[in-house]
Amino acid sequence: MIELILSGVILVLLTLLLNPLDFWMPDSMHMVILVGLVVVFSLFALFIYREKAKDEREVLHRFIAGRFAYLIGTTTLVIGIVFETLNHRYNTWLLLTLGIMILAKIAGVLYGKMKY
Description:
81% helix, mainly alpha, elongated, single chain, 116 residues
């Protein structure tokens, strides 16, 4: 449940960074949102890292490999978002990709709980 809440908070922060309705322009607000994104993403990454697999050994190895790949991919995207924000350039694809990856993770978790 905490993982789902953190995922939702990350998606809200990503939406705020996109600034879809041009509500704010101050750099200070962007910095606050950026720090919030990094902190919440760190908590999210911690929960993903602590996931436990209860299947056979081979399946466990695949899950671990998938987990590392997911974390490295999302961490790379967050670093890209941080650098783009600090350079006052916004690459919408970085934000959208991170959001889609998080939504896919949520969908996979929910599917796994319903199916198994």
